Predict the 3D structure of the following.
Amino acid sequence: MDTERPTELTPPSEEPPTEMTPSPGLQPLTAGLLECVTARDVARVIVDRGAAVLGATAGLLALVSEDGRLLEIVQSQGYPADVQVRWRSFPIDANLPLSNAVRQMAPLFTSSRAEWAAIFPHLTERNQDTNATADLPLIEHGRVLGALHLSFRDERVFDDADREFLDELVQQCSLAMGRALARQQADDARRRMEFLVRASEVLTESLDYSKTLHQLAHLVVPELSDYAQVAIVDGGAIDRIAVAHELPEREAVIRELYTLYPPDPTHPNSVGSAIRTGEVQHMTGLTDEIFVKAAVDEHHLSLLRQLALTDTLTIPLSARGRTLGAMTFAMSSESGRSFRPSLISFLQELSRRAAMAIDNARLYQDAEREISERKIAEAARERAVRQREDALIENARLMTEAVEASRQQREFQVNMLSSMTDGRLILCESPGDLPSPAPRLEMEATIQEADDIFRLRQAALATAVRCGFADERTDDLLTAVSEACMNAYVHAGGGDVRVRTDGECGVIQVWIVDRGKGIDYSRLPDAMFRKGYSSAGTLGHGFKLIISFADFVYVLTGPGGTTVVIEQHRSRPEPAWA
């Protein structure tokens, strides 16, 4: 936010830089994070309590947008209201402090206004109450979630102790935010599935699609958008049959707008264009300047301003290769919402179901007309054919949804297991998710019989002793390695083992690769938490011990075999909840 151009308040301090004094501890912040449920809760605690702990005069937290192009501010304090509105979001590829910290995945510190000016000469105006700044990326398992910006009134020198303290703060905040976002994604998926069930009930409760689409528009508003409209092609003309707005009084404004100033069907972003081309029309970043240019007269401009739309989305209603109409959704400046990629995909699925309901209703109406002209027997046979076709289409849809639901369940389970083990268990989807091999190869061995496990254990013990691991750390490593090797021997008939260390011998990695039939992730919770649980297709009853004694456990599995990487540090890493 310091890149905004605020009013000059006070002259910069002329006092020499002072060293930043660390807070007595992070207990207030940690306690607050434990109470958080949503990502916004986490952001509020990080900004409000984090700024207080560090003595910052202002702060903000921005998260990476769904499409990865923007940083969107979710919490700020200490900035004027107009500044917060103008800097609600900004590009990640911009030459701005917070953007640079996110792109480089490294903190950025400035100790004085002079240092700021040297790094960002193009940002000539700056809040005069700010001297030192800290921009800290929030990173969880190598993924940048967002960044924290803190402003300090006095010039400050960020020494090694300060940076170590800030690094501890950021680690706790990143883990808390990662858990909240994973929980939020799961909740969003559940709510949208429940919404689809309700929408399907609405669309199938009547063959009067004018009635059902009216109900659907009011179901969408305000849960998914601030405004919704359904237009249907009837005899070559576009008939607007449903309108819903979060504020009911504005529905009259919409009707007046479309009655007095009907949209130009040739306009590239109009409802007519979506129906004609069969393509989604998305307009974002609508401003008053755009309304002024588009308005025919002052009354037209007044109606546009009353709606205050900022983001519109028009999706064709297509079924069996024909475009039947279009659904238009819009967001207004009051809500500040926008159409993110996942929401657009969801609304396209909703529109597909609406189109199918319209098509089915029209097919039924056509069938009724045919029944009046033809014999009842012939009409019954044709109806049976259509029912079989609909059943095939429905079965195909259900199969597609089942595959997608299975994928979402697997993704949720992976996130859940990672969260429940406090980030110590990392279930990998591809070899690229495995850790980088430590540079020094200590030994290679093959497990073909039980005695090989004993020899590998002795080799691991020797490596730990040479690397200066304490007895407790060594015992933990040997327990985890023994259990993992035994699993490979029992369940996969053996495997290959490599022991590696880093240059300073502060980390020991044990890579165990087998060529078994793979692990069923759905049984991992039982293997982790049920005492004595063991089943073919899992890591066996020793998996609970592996997780308990290893610092980090990486698992990559598939039909061609399983790779388990056990990583142990000389000093036990701080748990995420510390």
Notes: Residues 160-204 form the longest helix (45 residues). The longest strand covers residues 309-319. The radius of gyration is 30 Å. The CA atoms of residues 110 and 231 lie 55 Å apart.
